[in-house]
Design goal:
The complex is a heterodimer of chains A (373) and B (366). With 373 residues, chain A is an alpha/beta fold. Chain A folds into two domains: 112 residues, Lyase, Ornithine Decarboxylase, Chain A, domain 1, CATH 2.40.37; 230 residues, Alanine racemase (TIM Barrel, Alpha-Beta Barrel), CATH 3.20.20.10. Chain A contains twelve helices and 17 strands. In chain A, β7, α7 and β8 form a beta-alpha-beta unit. In chain A, α3 runs parallel beside α4 and α6 crosses α7. The radius of gyration of chain A is 22 Å and the shape is elongated. Chain B is an alpha/beta fold. Helices cover 31% and strands 26% of the residues of chain B. Classes of the chains: A alpha/beta (373), B alpha/beta (366). At the A-B interface, α4, α5, β10 and α10 of A face α3, α4, β10 and α10 of B.
């Protein structure tokens, strides 16, 4: 568990001990306003994907900002349990459940909250049906469609077959269909151009729209057509047939997504301290891989020009300094790192500090971090 | 925060997944090997808890033997957890900078024998000032850069100057020198011997230079998992800061005297194609720095194809060899990064749960 030194609200942010996860509240509120206002006017509504930050306080701000379906999306059952405990009622788990232990938990949660779970295989449906029947509840199921790029999920015909199975199973309710566009961050990295990314992001939209028509012509009602996190959230929100967009990156915005959305502001940083200056061109700071998460890319220094992140070891960050920055970077100095990938970074902290105009205004628990189960 | 407490005696097959397992037979083997290696040597092990995140594993190594009777930590908050866990000899192998953190260090130094690494004169003066304010005494070792291009002094003369300063400062006790070494790739034993000695010699040169001006020291802390046996035979070295050896990672599997003990248990949740299975554990839980993918244990023909945020993609030679509900075990390429993402570790022996341990130093970044 993180053991920060707590500072009174109003303390200048530079007095925070490091490494700490800091959110710029003005930037966050700008992003919420921009994206939620857009969704208020769009055909489809927003379902905030809160696993990107794992913070219930932030989730409630998203739900209060308008333009949503009134619920959130998460990636694991454990995250859903936490968000339910923090008062979220309508939760889509963008994941499936197949083991007895997990199905028991899923049914218990579905009894207390409005839970939707995802499936892409008949065996999953069979097990969900047995568990739901046993627990005497109805489970609401969203069918996951695949894209070629992901090499998993289902094509239209298979989706129709699954939907029909759900319709014929008394313990299950068919909610609709979902698909996740690229670029989903994966390892190894997908070697794609910006044009590829756009094309891959567009593909599932058409796929979902086509599948909806096929299902409806087969007499199956489709309540939900849900698109996963996408750089094309604006296009997705007005695509015929789409009812909701599961998006989360827009709120805090990491270095990976920032270039796609110039109208939004990166709002999250790791505050770090220079701990060693062993060579003129080299500085070492106290935020290593355990404090930033570099699985998908290196963080960027945003508070000083002429400083480049060259690598992170477990406990340390290495910075290369241009001649212009060498005099300015001293032991004890604090620097701002913008994480490349938000999810792998917030997952490492137990709280995020909210800061406005340089002063601490809030500290919010990242209550769903570490919920992998 | 993850909370999962399966009953003692639960078979692995009944565990909810994903979860972090530690194989007790393997970790005990590793601890015994260290105890035997250092039984008759002057040099002893100072286990690095950044790899363990819980005091109990450190106590197990100290009880098994071969240690200095203390541990090494990377952060002040991590050291606090270990002191609360009953450990009273700690070397923080890192520079501690800033008033808040130095104050915490001083408070800790009143409860345990605490030593910290330094490579800068002003930092040393700051430590002294705060130690005086808190009526504490802090041990210091000078960090020497031998091969990492990271923190640490570059020239012996810098070490001499720092040691001379340390001996004059109130609240500071000069204890010695330390270094970390790195050697990429998969070196054989002969290469480890040659390169390990060459690097650690640089640390010993600083020791010699400091002693030549009449300053004595009781700690020469150098060496890590890949040099644990090299350091044991190197005169002048008093201790080794080994961490990875305890739970091991695939990156060090060229050292087959240690067994892999930390594993993540996952379950197949979908089989979209006959030669592909999707598992319920992803990169958030596993860590894949540098793009190094985890390995699947004891499943010939099954390889890891990709990691997504919360899922793993497994590729199988044999069509349909993995079915929905099947469990699999994963080995990490960087064990300490993986362990630092979990709140609990389930200790198993021969497939059955024997203990559930919290990892209270997880997230101790400060």
């Amino acid at each position: 568990m993180e053991r920060p030194i707590f500072k009174p609200l109003g303390t200048p942010v530079a007095e925070l001990d490091t490494p700490s996860l800091v959110v710029e509240l003005d930037a966050l509120e700008h992003n919420l306003s921009a994206v939620h206002t857009f969704f208020q006017q769009a055909t489809a509504k927003l379902r905030p994907l809160v696993s990107t930050h794992c913070c219930p306080t932030l989730a409630h701000q998203q739900l209060a900002a308008g333009g949503t379906v009134g619920g959130v999306a998460v990636m694991t059952l454990g995250q859903a349990e936490v968000f339910a405990a923090y008062g979220c009622r309508d939760i889509t788990i963008a994941n499936t459940a197949v083991t007895p232990a997990k199905l028991r938990r899923l049914c218990a949660l579905a009894r207390q909250s409005d839970i939707t779970v995802v499936a892409d295989h008949p065996t999953q449906l069979q097990r969900m049906a047995e568990a739901a029947k046993d627990q005497e509840i109805l489970l609401r199921v969203l069918v996951q469609m695949g894209t070629d790029a992901q090499q998993s999920g289902l094509a239209s015909a298979a989706a129709v077959a699954l939907a029909q199975t759900i319709e014929q199973t008394p313990a299950l309710t068919f909610a609709g269909i979902t698909a996740s566009p690229m670029p989903m961050p994966t390892i190894p990295f997908a070697d794609v151009t910006d044009a590829d990314v756009t094309a891959m992001s567009r593909q599932p939209l058409q796929q979902l729209a086509d599948a909806r028509k096929v299902l409806e012509s087969a007499g199956i009602e489709v309540q939900v057509v849900s698109v996963g996190e996408t750089i094309l959230y604006e296009e997705a929100a007005n695509f015929a047939g789409v009812t909701e967009v599961m998006a989360g990156m827009y709120a805090l915005l990491d270095a990976h997504y920032a270039p796609y959305w110039p109208h939004l502001k990166p709002a999250v940083h790791v505050l770090t301290t220079v701990t060693s200056r062993p060579e003129p061109t080299l500085a070492i700071t106290d935020a290593g891989q355990k404090a930033v998460g570099i699985d998908l890319g290196l963080p960027q220094v945003t508070s000083l020009a002429g400083v480049e992140t060259t690598g992170l070891s477990a406990e340390h960050c290495r910075l290369r300094l241009d001649a212009s920055a060498q005099a300015a970077v001293k032991i004890g100095q604090k620097l701002w790192l913008r994480p490349w990938d938000l999810g792998t970074c917030t997952n490492l902290y137990d709280l995020m500090w909210g800061v406005r105009q340089g002063r601490i205004e809030a500290s919010w628990p990242i209550a769903a971090r570490g919920q992998y189960r | 925060m993850e909370t999962y407490r399966p009953n003692i005696g639960t078979p692995i097959a009944e565990l909810d997944t994903p979860c972090l397992l530690v194989d007790l037979d393997a970790v005990e083997h590793n601890f015994r090997h260290i105890a035997e290696t250092y039984r008759d040597t002057t040099c002893k092990m100072r286990t690095h808890v950044k790899n363990l995140k819980t005091p109990i594993l450190a106590h197990m190594q100290m009880r098994a033997g071969g240690t200095v009777g203390g541990i090494c930590a990377a952060k002040v908050a991590e050291a606090e957890v270990m002191v609360e866990g009953g450990i009273d000899d700690i070397l923080i192998a890192n520079q501690i900078v800033g008033r808040d953190k130095i104050a915490r260090l001083c408070a800790l130094a009143k409860q345990a024998d605490v030593k910290v690494a330094v490579d800068d004169a002003q930092n040393l003066r700051d430590l002294s000032d705060m130690a005086q304010q808190h009526d504490a005494n802090i041990g210091v070792v000078i960090e020497v850069d031998t091969s990492m291009s990271r923190a640490g002094i570059r020239e012996a003369a810098q070490g001499v100057a720092l040691a001379q300063l340390a001996t004059t400062l109130p609240g500071i006790t000069f204890r010695g020198v330390m270094s970390h070494q790195t050697l990429p790739g998969r070196p054989d034993k002969a290469t480890r011997q040659v390169e390990g000695r060459r690097y650690m010699q640089r640390c010993l040169e600083v020791k010699t230079a400091i002693e030549a001006v009449g300053i004595s020291m009781d700690i020469v802390s150098t060496g890590e998992t890949w040099t644990y046996d090299v350091a044991a035979d190197l005169p002048g070295v008093t201790e080794v800061e080994g961490g990875t050896y305890a739970l091991m990672s695939t990156a060090y599997d060229y050292m087959d005297e240690f067994q892999l003990a930390a594993k993540v248990l996952g379950t197949v949740i979908s089989t979209p194609r006959p030669d592909m299975a999707i598992g319920d554990v992803g990169l958030r839980a596993l860590a894949s720095p540098g793009g190094v993918l985890p390995r699947v244990e004891s499943m010939p023909g099954v390889t890891v194809e990709a990691l997504h945020e919360a899922h793993i993609v497994l590729r199988t030679d044999d069509a349909a060899s993995l079915r929905i509900g099947d469990q699999f075990l994963l080995h990490s390429g960087q064990q300490d990064i993986m362990v630092s993402r979990w709140d609990q570790m389930i200790a198993v022996r021969q497939g059955v749960v024997e203990a559930v341990w919290d990892l209270p130093a997880r997230g101790c970044h400060h």
